[in-house]
Design a protein that fits this description.
Blueprint (H helix, E strand, L loop, with lengths): L2 H17 L5 E6 L5 E5 L7 E2 L5 E2 L6 E3 L5 E3 L25 E6 L6 E2 L10 E4 L5 E6 L2 E6 L4 E7 L3 E7 L5 E7 L4 E6 L5 E6 L1 H4 L10 E7 L4 E10 L3 E10 L5 E5 L12 E3 L6 E5 L10 E6 L5 E7 L15 E3 L5 E5 L4 E6 L15 H4 E3 L4 E3 L2 E12 L4 E11 L15 E6 L5 E6 L8 E2 L5 E6 L12 E6 L6 H4 E6 L3 E7 L5 E6 L1 E2 L5 E2 L3 E5 L1
Parallel strand pairs: 1-37, 8-40
Antiparallel strand pairs: 1-2, 3-4, 5-6, 7-42, 9-10, 10-11, 11-12, 13-14, 14-15, 15-16, 17-18, 18-19, 19-20, 21-22, 22-23, 23-24, 25-26, 26-27, 27-28, 29-30, 30-31, 31-32, 32-33, 34-35, 35-36, 36-37, 38-39, 39-42, 40-41
Length: 535
């Protein structure tokens, strides 16, 4: 056979493998130069096996084995793309993402790359139709018209914005703050005019010290109602905690609060609701690990009445208390609830199988229904684990868990090495809890953010405090309807020079994200403080 024919056969075989889905195409883009490249590679040297047992290894000199055991070896494969020719194409259909718009958010002091989790609390959210983006940075709240690329309105609040959310009908913008007053606002989404406000400090107490002031931790929306978790902490001879859960109408009218007359003497950092608002879940716990408290998952109805609860004891001998950070999620139809403790344990509850209110613990055997993600284990002489960041129910058959940085189980022990699952997305089979696949992000991710129709989700990637690698910063977008592992579901990646601290995604795969500058170990500052719209 002529040499030219052999070359053609190899090329067409390679194209067939890509098109047939045996190879995961990772689409990456640069944010500064406008140059885009398509790279075909795995994630962290992960081996992906196709139907014929071919293996694809994710390094720069990867080898692809075909049916006849022939090897095609190459380095990077790239192609240029023109961003201006893509504006009329639906985001999910494009070959690469592009920077549609950037909006300057003003100067801030850059954090050091090597110093733990970020203290930048900027937040961003999109309206249900993706037309408007709201971004909070410090005391400044800005709403922007995304298609027209202009500012709709801007205002200064009494305190620092801690969470924001559009109501389901898009008429209202709900805003929470951390301040001496801890206000909860309902604003006209189109004008920014204040409709109602509620002072959570009247319930929680307050302090002149900013870190001990009340904070609205989480706002979640059902079809016709808003649920909010707020709290504060303080430290005297020991830690003190105070928390409340609220239901408001979208215009900010208070419906009820729990408890009615006093605070929970525990922390509540997260709350979620089914779309009809009839299954509302939150958890109490002790993030200080000093008060010897269980974490308790509560399910209440739209009137605040207890439906069921489940106690999660501390993971001894490592911890004296248990807590859930952002690791709590209920499915849109209310049938499933997952919990993910900070110490790395995960739980799944089928709502119909839980005992009725007043019966205390779940009927489930915790050893059967509890599974571990990254609980403490001994590595190089020290017990380490990765912090449980967030949990999401992606479908009836799958749950997702997001791990954080590596921590020592016993303070003040050091961390001899990064945990193998540090800063990773872990996919689990819903019924058994077995791990299906893992996807390493390289840097800390603040959350798993789904589009309103649950089609897409975005992961914003920030600091890699373990190795100081600044090349991991950016946005990873996935198609939840695709099958396979994380590489197979990846739609595109968009790299940023600074860390990405928050993100939101629309049903047409448009991403709004907040980037913040970072100071590298050599003293150089990289990245910008800006809102970016990527399509």
């Amino acid at each position: 056979m002529k040499k030219s024919n052999v070359v053609l056969i190899i090329i067409f075989s390679f194209i067939f493998l890509v098109c047939s889905g045996c190879i995961s195409s990772h689409i990456t883009a640069s944010d500064e130069e406008g140059n885009y490249s398509e790279e075909i590679k795995g994630n962290n040297n992960e081996e992906i096996k196709g139907n014929n047992n071919e293996k694809i290894k994710g390094n720069n000199n990867e080898k692809i084995k075909g049916n006849n055991n022939e090897e095609i070896q190459r380095s990077e494969i790239g192609q240029a793309s023109d961003q201006f020719g893509q504006e009329s194409i639906t985001s999910s259909e494009k070959t690469s993402p592009y920077l549609y718009w950037e909006f300057d958010l003003g100067d801030i002091n850059p954090e050091n790359l090597s110093e733990g989790r970020s203290n930048i609390k900027d937040c961003v959210v999109l309206s249900q139709d993706g037309k408007y983006a709201a971004v909070g940075t410090g005391e400044t709240l800005t709403v922007l018209d995304v298609p027209d690329k202009n500012v709709l309105w801007k205002k200064t609040l009494r305190g620092n914005v801690s969470d924001i959310l559009f109501s389901k009908d898009g008429k209202y913008l709900l805003v929470g703050e951390r301040s001496v007053d801890g206000y909860i606002y309902s604003l006209d989404a189109g004008t920014g005019d204040e409709i109602h406000s509620y002072r959570s400090a009247d319930d929680l107490g307050t302090s002149e010290s900013p870190k001990y002031q009340p904070c609205v931790y989480k706002i979640t929306a059902a079809n016709n109602s808003i649920y909010i978790a707020a709290g504060r902490y303080w430290k005297a001879s020991g830690y003190g905690l105070a928390s409340r859960v609220y239901r408001f109408s979208p215009d900010g009218t208070l419906s009820w609060k729990l408890p009615e007359t006093k605070n929970y003497a525990q922390s509540i950092n997260w709350i979620d609701s089914s779309l009809d608002g009839k299954n509302v879940v939150f958890s109490t716990g002790d993030w200080t690990n000093s008060l010897e408290l269980d974490a308790v998952v509560y399910s209440v109805n739209e009137n605040g009445g207890l439906r069921w609860k489940y106690d999660i004891p501390p993971l001894k001998p490592y911890f004296v208390s248990a807590a859930i950070w952002h690791g709590l999620d209920v499915s849109d139809d209310g049938s499933m609830v997952t919990a993910y403790t900070g110490d790395g344990r995960k739980y799944l509850f089928y709502d119909s199988r839980m005992k009725k209110a007043g019966d205390g613990n779940s009927e489930w055997n915790s050893k059967k229904w509890q599974s571990n993600v990254t609980v403490p284990e001994k590595i190089v002489g020290s017990y380490i684990y990765t912090y449980g960041e967030e949990a999401k129910i992606s479908s009836k058959n799958e749950t997702l868990y997001l791990t954080g940085v590596t921590l020592p189980a016993y303070y003040p022990d050091g961390v001899p090495m990064a945990h193998p699952l540090e800063n990773s997305l872990v996919s689990c089979e819903a019924e058994t809890g077995d791990t299906l696949w893992t996807y390493n992000l390289g840097g800390r991710c603040t959350g798993i953010f789904f589009s309103p129709d649950m089609r897409f989700f975005v992961l914003p990637v920030g600091k890699d405090s373990s190795s100081g690698n600044s090349y991991v910063h950016g946005i990873h977008v996935f198609d939840n309807q695709k099958s396979g592992n994380g590489n197979s579901r990846l739609v595109w990646k968009f790299n940023t020079k600074g860390i990405v601290v928050d993100a939101a995604i629309s049903s047409d795969c448009t991403v709004a994200a907040v980037e913040a500058p970072i100071k590298l170990e050599n003293g150089d500052v990289t990245g910008k403080h800006r809102l970016i719209i990527v399509r």
